C-alpha cells in the first residue's frame, strides 16, 4: 500500500466514529512503514505538495509565447529550497534551459538525467469546465490545468521525490540532473536538442535519460523504448494539360490518383495488422493524407473544362524504428511517385530512424540494458504494475538523446487516467500525482545507487 493511500485511510479512520478500532487495525501497517524508513507526509505536507504543483500549472507557459521568465524564477526557487545546484543556460536568447544538480558521492560514475519540458500547448478556454490555467481541484481530487499531464506534473514530481529522499537522509552515488527545457511542443530545436549537442551536456557525463511517456487507462504503467519517426512526404505529378472533354493517358490528375490508390492500399494493409491485433500502434507504418492541391482557379471556383498540368498531395507518414526503411524508400520511389509516371517527390521532414552511430533508434528492453531492469524493479517496489514495452507514436525530446546513442526511457507515472494530453479539460487526480512521487522516489534511489558489475572491484559472479 503506498504511503499516501495509507495516510488517507488513516485520516478517514481518525475522522470516523470507529476511531480507536480503525487506528488499531492500521497500527501494524504504520509501524512497518516506520521500519521501512519512509517519510510520513502529514496533511499539511500533502497540501504543500499540491500547492507547489498548482503554482507551476498557473504559470502561463503556453505556446507560442510562453512566460519562461516566470517558470525559470519558480523552478530556481524550488531548487534553492532543496539546496540543488542550478544553472540557467540560454542556447537561444529568451529560451532558457534550467539545469539542476544533486551531486553524487562517486564522481567517477556516469550521471542520470531526468528531463521535462516547461512549455504547454494552447487551449480553448470556452471548451474547458474549469480555467485551463486555474489549477482548480474538484471534489473528486482532480486537478485541472494545461500541463497537468503533459508534463508539468512530472517536473514537479521529480522535485518532490528529491525533497522526500533528502528528508530521509538518502545520498546518491551517481549525480542526478534535472533539465527543464523550453519549446518541446514546437520541436525542441532550441531546447533539448541544443542541450543534447552541447559541451555542457558532454561534461555532465549522462548515461541514462528519463523523459515523458503516455498515461495508461488501466492499472499498468507504460514504458516507452522508442518512438516513430515523422516523414512528411509531398508527391507531385506532371502531365500535359488538356480539354476537360478529352480522354487521354498520363494526365497529372490521373497519375496522382494512381499513386493515392497505391498509398491507400498500403495504409489499409498496415491498418489491418493493427485491427487484427498482430501489431501494436507503434509497430505499424501509419500513412495519412493531409492535403490535396490541384485545379486551375477561376473567380467562381475552378475552371471546369480544363485538365490541369500539375497536381500535388501531402502525407504524414510515421515510421517505427523497427520498420524496413529501405523497402519503404523503394516503395515511395517505384510505386508512390514513380518517374515513369512523371512524378516527383520531396520530404518536408524526414527524421532518421537511426542514431549517430548508425544503429536503430531503440533503447534495449532486455537484460543487456540494466536501466530497463532497474526501472521495472523500482516501479514494482513502489507497488506499481507495468505493461509491455511500447513504441511511442509521436515525437518527444527523448529522440535527441537516443540519437546520441544514449539509453532514453519514456515514462509518465499515471495509471487509470484518461488520455488528455493536448485535449480539453486536461486533469490529473491527486492520488495519482502522489503515487507518481513514490514511484520516482523509488526510481531515483535505484538509478543513483546503481554500480555496474566490476566497478566495485567485485564481479557479479563472485558475489
Ligand atoms: Zn509533452
From TrEMBL:
E.C. designation(s): 3.5.1.14
Active-site residue list: 119, 184 (proton acceptor)
The protein's required cofactors: Zn(2+)
Keyword Nucleus among record annotations: no
Cofactor mode of binding and number, as noted: Binds 2 Zn(2+) ions per subunit.
GO CC term, one of those recorded: cytoplasm
Amino acids binding Zn(2+) 1: 117, 150, 212
InterPro entries to which the protein is assigned, alphabetical: Aminoacylase-1_M20A, ArgE/DapE_CS, Bact_exopeptidase_dim_dom, N-acyl_aa_amidohydrolase, Peptidase_M20, Peptidase_M20_dimer
Domain of life: Eukaryota
Annotated GO MF terms: aminoacylase activity; metal ion binding
Location of the Peptidase M20 dimerisation domain: 232-336
Keyword Acetylation assigned: no
Subcellular location: Cytoplasm
Keywords linked to the UniProt accession: Cytoplasm, Hydrolase, Metal-binding, Signal, Zinc
Pfam families: M20_dimer (PF07687), Peptidase_M20 (PF01546)
Primary location class: cytoplasm
Binding site for Zn(2+) 2: 150, 185, 422
Signal peptide, first to last residue: 1-39
Stated family: Belongs to the peptidase M20A family.
PANTHER family recorded: AMINOACYLASE-1
NCBIfam families per the UniProt record, alphabetical: Ac-peptdase-euk
Name this polypeptide is given: N-acyl-aliphatic-L-amino acid amidohydrolase
Gene designation: LOC107898901
Amino acid at each position: 500500500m503506498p504511503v499516501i493511500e495509507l495516510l488517507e485511510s488513516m485520516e478517514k479512520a481518525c475522522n470516523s466514529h470507529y476511531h480507536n478500532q480503525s487506528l488499531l487495525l492500521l497500527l501494524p501497517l504504520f509501524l512497518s512503514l516506520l521500519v521501512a524508513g519512509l517519510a510520513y507526509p502529514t496533511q499539511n505536507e500533502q497540501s504543500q505538495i499540491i500547492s507547489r504543483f498548482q503554482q507551476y500549472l498557473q504559470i502561463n507557459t503556453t505556446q507560442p509565447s510562453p512566460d519562461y521568465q516566470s517558470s525559470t524564477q519558480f523552478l530556481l526557487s524550488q531548487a534553492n529550497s532543496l539546496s540543488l545546484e542550478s544553472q540557467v543556460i540560454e542556447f537561444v536568447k529568451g529560451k532558457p534551459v534550467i539545469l539542476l544538480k544533486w551531486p553524487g558521492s562517486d564522481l567517477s560514475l556516469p550521471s542520470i538525467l531526468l528531463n521535462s519540458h516547461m512549455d504547454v500547448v494552447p487551449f480553448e478556454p470556452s471548451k474547458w469546465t474549469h480555467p485551463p490555467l486555474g489549477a482548480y481541484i474538484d471534489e473528486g481530487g482532480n486537478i485541472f490545468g494545461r500541463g497537468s499531464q503533459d508534463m508539468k506534473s512530472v517536473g514537479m514530481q521529480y522535485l518532490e521525490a528529491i525533497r522526500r529522499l533528502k528528508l530521509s537522509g538518502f545520498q546518491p552515488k551517481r549525480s542526478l540532473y534535472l533539465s527543464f527545457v523550453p519549446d518541446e511542443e514546437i520541436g525542441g530545436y532550441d531546447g533539448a536538442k541544443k542541450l543534447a549537442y552541447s559541451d555542457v551536456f558532454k561534461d555532465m557525463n549522462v548515461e541514462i535519460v528519463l523523459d515523458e511517456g503516455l498515461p495508461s487507462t488501466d492499472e499498468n504503467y507504460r514504458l516507452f523504448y522508442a518512438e516513430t519517426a515523422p516523414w512528411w512526404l509531398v508527391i507531385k505529378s506532371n502531365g500535359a494539360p488538356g480539354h476537360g472533354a478529352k480522354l487521354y493517358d498520363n494526365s497529372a490528375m490521373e497519375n496522382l490518383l494512381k499513386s493515392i490508390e497505391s498509398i491507400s492500399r498500403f495504409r489499409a494493409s498496415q491498418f489491418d495488422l493493427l485491427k487484427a491485433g498482430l501489431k501494436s500502434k507503434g509497430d505499424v507504418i501509419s500513412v495519412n493524407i493531409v492535403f490535396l492541391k490541384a485545379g486551375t482557379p477561376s473567380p467562381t471556383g475552378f475552371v471546369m473544362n480544363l485538365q490541369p498540368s500539375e497536381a500535388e498531395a501531402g502525407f504524414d507518414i510515421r515510421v517505427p524504428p523497427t520498420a524496413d526503411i529501405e523497402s519503404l524508400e523503394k516503395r515511395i520511389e517505384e510505386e508512390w511517385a514513380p518517374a515513369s509516371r512523371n512524378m516527383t517527390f520531396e520530404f518536408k521532414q524526414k527524421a532518421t530512424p537511426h542514431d549517430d552511430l548508425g544503429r536503430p533508434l531503440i533503447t534495449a528492453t532486455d537484460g543487456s540494458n540494466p536501466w530497463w531492469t532497474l526501472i521495472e524493479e523500482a516501479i514494482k517496489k513502489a507497488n506499481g504494475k507495468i505493461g509491455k514495452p511500447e513504441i511511442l507514436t509521436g515525437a518527444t525530446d527523448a529522440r535527441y538523446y537516443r540519437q546520441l546513442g544514449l539509453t532514453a526511457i519514456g515514462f509518465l507515472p499515471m495509471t487509470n487516467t484518461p488520455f488528455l494530453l493536448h485535449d480539453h479539460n486536461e486533469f490529473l487526480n491527486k492520488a495519482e500525482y502522489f503515487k507518481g512521487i513514490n514511484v520516482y522516489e523509488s526510481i531515483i534511489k535505484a538509478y543513483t545507487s546503481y554500480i555496474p558489475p566490476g566497478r566495485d572491484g567485485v564481479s557479479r559472479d563472485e558475489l
